[in-house]
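Open question from group meeting: does this chain pack into something compact, or does most of it stay loose? Before anyone orders reagents, we agreed to write out a predicted structure and look at it together. Recording both the input and the output here so the notebook holds the full record.
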Amino acid sequence: MALQLGQEAPNFTAETTEGTIDFHDWIGDSWAVLFSHPKDFTPVCTTELGYMANAKPAFDERGVKIIGLSVDPLDKHEDWAKDIEETQGTAPNYPLISDADFKIAKAYGMLAADVEGDAADRTPADNQTVRNVFVVGPDKKIKLILVYPMTTGRNFDEVLRVIDSLQLTANHKVATPANWKSGDDVIIAGSVNNDQAKEIFGEWEEPKPYIRIVPDPTGK
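Structure tokens returned:
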């Protein structure tokens, strides 16, 4: 069964390029991004892993840990990291999970439960559904799921934008409109009635009774 937003992210123990981890323990009190790959030494994924290595400071600033996953053994991950550094300028500076037994991909609904065999015998096309991004909150619940095709590189700037929204709306009774970026005006959440809104926000713009616009409450 596919995972749903708000569901607890399945926990797992796995071997990574930075040692053995328990996923929930590894997240701790942070936010986390888990992004998956169908196979090592694939061209689009190589660019993505390099981009995330360069973007890691932006995730660190937001208290977000990043971790990759690929359906191949750990020794291949280590060789792939050398290629990533050579071609993208930076090797992965975050853990990369080995999921050669497909256990995690199955738990996260990225591969069918009946998939079995040797990971080395499977092609990237066999694992093409292992192209997800999961954002997990400190409460270990899934906040975002994105699924990309193999031929389209992921937009991790969009992931950062969504994290900004998720963190803002987790702490304030607002929602963010289309194409919102940090510092833009926001919308008072529908769960807040007008009396409550007056106490919290004072005044607001109201083009329609159900659209109540206020400045970013963080003052950015």
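Observations to bring back to the group:
The chain has a mean pLDDT of 96.
The domain at 13-151 is CATH 3.40.30.10 (Glutaredoxin).
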